[in-house]
Amino acid sequence: MVKLFQTKKDMQLPKILILALTLTMLSCGSKNKKKEIPELEATAKTDIPFKYGVWITADATRDNADYATEFEKYKSAGIDEILINTNTSPELLQRLTPVAKEKGLKVHAWIMAMNRPGDSIALQHPEWYIVSRDGKSCFDNRPYVDYYQWLCPTRTASRNHVLGLVEGLAKVEGIESVHLDYIRFPDIFLPIGLLPKYNLKQDTEMAEYDFCYCDACISAFEKIHHKNPLESKNTAIDMEWKNFRLNAIKAIVDDAYEIVHKYNKNLTAAVFPYPEMADHMVRQRWDKWNIDEVYPMIYHGFYNEEIDWIGYATKQGVTDLKGKNVGLNTGVYLPPFKSAAELKEAIIQAKDNGAKGVTFFDGPALTAEYLKTIKETKASLK
Q1: Which of 93, 156, 246, 287 has the fewest CB neighbours in a 10 Å radius?
Q2: pLDDT tens for each residue of 304-349
Q3: What is the pLDDT of residue 3?
Q4: CA atoms of 188 and 357, how far apart (whole Å)
Q5: Cα–Cα distance measured from residue 88 to residue 118, given in angstroms and rounded to the nearest whole number
Q6: Beta strand pairing status for 266-271 and 357-361?
Q7: 8-22 confidence digits (pLDDT tens)
């Protein structure tokens, strides 16, 4: 596949050079001609192959030979990259990266960013954790599930802790990117398909799920807007307060971008389905971030949607990113699929609506039938 791509690119190279030279000469006579260059670049990028990835979680007790077998399974089925969670361990990432690369897989360092369950350092600092509108700290009052242990993106110490973990992963040789997950606030609104599981009805922004009202966030907001959100009659329609939290997450992402690029790595992130939806549900407006690629988790089953919704949400994100030079890879959740045919439909929906790739959650859910379908679908879409 790589050899074929290189051959196509080489065949097009003379045409691109001729066009580029022509544009350069014309630009001497007219500044307006420079506007054509991005269009040329966009045309050149159309030959980039549609890529396939999978999220996996590493287990340090498994040996390299065991992982080599797993990675070979993925590669032989057409998977191009793995997004691997090593629980922010640079050492484990450093051990597994060459094993994956030897099998022809690209590696991304997947990190749970603002949600840090079991973080031994963070747990020594209760003040680092976000606080709900009803005054409860996520340190000892976890919303929804016990592993929801969220750090404040505004407080200097907690944000620096997260950025330090990002830097540790970025230093590992051979990885493609540091891949941020849980780079948001907790769900102010859960996906509708998950509400019955928690016996919840969420028609309004409920205080116990609305974050963060810690002293650091309140103080920082007051310095800018000269008011306390806790005194607001309706925080749900206080746009300055909402925007403050969107910007707090954006600031973490933008700082992480600078850090990883210092080590010649990219920054990517797993995000909610499309920007407007992410804004509404988790204070995450990812189309405004400094980032290289996004992997929206378009998990149709969570939202009681049909498979064509994967195409709809993909197109929404692609449209919102237009002109920003940010790649979008559609993330799909495998358990809701009833057949391999549905998985194939999901892949086609992603590709036809502008995604540059599709990523599956997660490795253990990739059955032999699904792997066969991925391989066949990849071959048919060349």
Answers
A1: 156
A2: 999 999 999 999 999 999 999 999 999 999 999 999 999 999 999 9
A3: 31
A4: 29
A5: 12
A6: unpaired
A7: 334 343 433 333 434
What structural domains does the chain harbor?
1-48 (no CATH), 51-380 (3.20.20.80)
The pLDDT, as a whole number, for residue 48 is 86
Tokens of 89: 């361990």
Single-letter amino acid, residue 48: I
Model pTM score? 0.88
For residue 241, count other CB atoms closer than 10 A to its CB: 19
Distance CA(111)–CA(246), nearest Å, equals 20
Kindly give the pairing relationship between strand 177-181 and strand 106-112. Answer: parallel
Phi and psi at residue 142, in whole multiples of 5°?
Answer: -85, 125
Looking at residue 184, its amino acid is R
> Within 13 A of 235's CA, how many CA atoms are on the CB side?
24
* Rounded Cα–Cα distance for residues 290 and 282 (Å): 18
Are the C-beta atoms of residues 272 and 250 closer than 8 Å to each other? no
Peptide linkage before 212 cis (omega within 30 of 0): yes
Pairing of strands 293-296, 266-271: parallel
Radius of gyration of the chain (CA): 22
* Dihedral sign computed on CA atoms, order 339, 340, 341, 345: positive
Contact in structure between 377 and 348 (CB atoms under 8 Å): yes
Q: What does DSSP say about strands 51-57 and 81-85: parallel, antiparallel, or unpaired? A: parallel
- DSSP-assigned letters across all residues of 246-258: HHHHHHHHHHHHH
Give the closest residue to 189 by CA, choosing from 172, 176, 208, 174.
208
Q: pLDDT for 293-311, tens place per residue? A: 999 999 999 999 999 999 9
Phi-psi sector, 69: left (phi>0), alpha (psi -120 to 50), beta? alpha
Cα gap 126→145, rounded to integer Å: 18
Q: Which residue is associated with the tokens 């197109």?
A: 315
